Amino acid sequence: MTITAPETHGTATDTRTAAPAPLEETVAPVKLWICPNEDLAPALAGVLAAHWLDDRERETAARFIFERDRRQYLVAHTLVRRALALEAGLAEAELVIWRSSRGRPFLQPLPGGLPRGGSHLDFNLSHSAGYNLLGIVRRHRIGVDVEALDRDAQAIDTIVRTFAPEEQRWASCAAPGRGRDRRVLRLWTLKEAYSKARGLGLGLPFDEFSFTLADDRGVLAFQPPADDLAGRWRFLELEPVPGVLAAVAVPADEQLSPVLQLHHGFPWGRAASHTIPLPEPVGGARE
């Protein structure tokens, strides 16, 4: 695993002197799971899907022509239900997932709140080249994207043409090859994560907002689109697996915990995670 952000480890709470505060009274960290398809055997993914997924999800899975695509879908969506079940305190099959008019999924609110506290969980899913990335946050919205550094030259050229002019110039400063591909896909994952957090997806033209990136990793500046009046966001870049780039976007909120917990593999239990500080907010309303 390649992570350049500092890593810290939590310590156990001494329940003899202090009981943990309810989740709704604390600020929970952003949760992120990276799970390769190989972490769930095909037969097991099928069994879990039969018990956990709703009718619409099972119908979608049945429509895939190629088995590799069906497997990707089943692993991704059983991952969503398992991780949400752990966070919400509900059984996987009890989760009701609705979709916005643009197709963005979200968890149906419960009148009395969630069993594990709070009344809101937002999540976002991305998958590419056999890897699934899932982000969950207890306040506001989250967007995530994952991409493998295996795009062909034609695909890279097509992606670059969607960028703002200053981003195209920055990408072209690198010679064609791995270095240029990395620059292009760093911008692409950040743009995808931001637009998905906004609930707009590819409905938001990618040349209407722009990022200024450090040469290695990190967002130095963000120019939001005209309709994002607040425009303050936290963006995190990761390479959780060599050759696989990931990006996370969350609104900059004083009540949002400035840390992210990164989990690897399918979440059978509450395994140890890597704690990563979220970068300082960037962006702001246009002048």
Beta-strand segment tally: 13
Summarize the biggest pleated sheet. 5 strands, mixed
Helical amount: 25-40%
Structural class: alpha+beta
Q: What is the overall pLDDT average?
A: 88
N- to C-terminal distance: 41 Å
- Globally, the shape reads globular
Q: Which segments are poorly predicted (pLDDT under 50) over 5 or more consecutive residues?
A: 1-25
Strand content: 25-35%
Strands in their spatial order, largest beta sheet: 4-5-1-11-12
Write the layout of secondary structure elements.
Blueprint (H helix, E strand, L loop, with lengths): L29 E7 L5 H11 L2 H8 L4 H22 L8 E3 L5 E3 L14 E7 L2 E7 L5 E6 L4 H8 L4 H8 L5 H20 L12 E4 L5 E5 L8 E10 L2 E8 L7 E6 L9 E4 L4 E2 L4
Helix pairs in contact: 1-3, 4-6, 5-6
Overview of this protein structure:
- The model is unreliable at 1-25 (pLDDT under 50).
- The protein has helices at 42-52, 55-62, 67-88, 153-160, 165-172, 178-197; strands spanning 30-36, 97-99, 105-107, 122-128, 131-137, 143-148, 210-213, 219-223, 232-241, 244-251, 259-264, 274-277, 282-283.
- The protein has six helices and 13 strands.
- Helix 1 crosses helix 3 and helix 5 (165-172) runs antiparallel to helix 6.
- It starts with 29 loop residues before the first strand and ends with a strand.
- Strand 9 and strand 10 (244-251) form a beta hairpin.
- It is globular, with a radius of gyration of 19 Å.
- 27% of the residues lie in helices and 25% in strands.
- With 287 residues, it is of the alpha+beta class.
- The strands form four sheets. The chain has a five-stranded mixed β-sheet with strand order 4-5-1-11-12, covered by helices on one side. The protein has a four-stranded antiparallel β-sheet with strand order 6-10-9-13, with helices on one face. Strands 2-3 form a two-stranded antiparallel ribbon.
